[in-house]
């Protein structure tokens, strides 16, 4: 693809700021999830729709990201990445902390939806600037660092949010003010990698539309499979007699740690077998993890299942986003990454909806998950066949030269 390189050379300071900025996205849900029961208890006496509104405090931001990310990408291309990122980070902090001061559940849900819009801009701009600043092997390193940081921050703040929530459900929301510490470093070490889109030669014919669409479909489908475990595993655990919230939390933590392991393994696996074959592997792991999950009869079996599944989930994002970045040119990076972010969060949001649609046809939750696992195996097989036919995995020219 045709890329216009930034006028300066990006290094570790820019990488640290962008990776930390990317990690803000996982804070959107993990800190709030543990305090939902207290939120329900607080507003149940006065809010008749509490059972509908309380879950929206978690899912609302994901839907907002899915809907707003394409616009965020367009703004990044038209207005500029840096200014949007700085403003969005400040909005993220203020809107994230707002529920600590709000007195009714409807206002809290509204604040969370607007927070999701800010989150979409942060994620899109950080990923876009990684695509702008680096190419080839360097770009892959920062993509991987981005995924690893998201997993680490997610694990940390899941625990911290739960601990602070023991005192009051409002307390965890104040942690959203921490990103304000990133605003000054963003202003100092980052620079606008390109002029406004209308001032830059942006040849849409230079975009690899096939690779773009394939990448979007991969992350959408992959996230549907990925979110089956965190959403449906508690129900399956209760069905086999595991009702302890602590043990359910342990299973969730095991999945997060496994996704971190997958992200760390990604450069090695991709380097050995290539992008296409890695797609086959990650879809196979996601699907096999689901098969193990629905056949598990004990806590040990559940932990093995979420670990296998988690490794596949950790491979998914870096392996899907790399060909998408290579399919774009600098003038379209914002819109392209906005579309990718939208598909990622749309997959998260519709995962339980897809399962719910399949249940009546499959008979029960276990069979519905089995159907989706079979679909995952099928698409994994297609990637493997594609790889065998081509006798090589997908590699961008810059990546090939970097490997050599």
Automatic annotation (TrEMBL):
CDD domains given in the database record: MFS_arabinose_efflux_permease_like
Stretches assigned to the Major facilitator superfamily (MFS) profile domain: 14-393
Membrane topology designation: Multi-pass membrane protein
Alphabetical list of SUPFAM superfamilies matching this protein: MFS general substrate transporter
InterPro entries per UniProt: MFS, MFS_dom, MFS_trans_sf, Sugar_transporter_CS
Keyword Nucleotide-binding applies: no
The entry's keywords: Membrane, Transmembrane, Transmembrane helix, Transport
Family matches, as Pfam families: MFS_1
Residue spans crossing the bilayer: 16-36, 56-76, 83-102, 108-135, 142-161, 173-191, 207-228, 240-266, 273-294, 300-321, 342-362, 368-390
Name of protein: MFS-type drug efflux transporter P55
Coiled coil spans: none
Keyword Metal-binding belongs to the record: no
Subcellular location: Endomembrane system
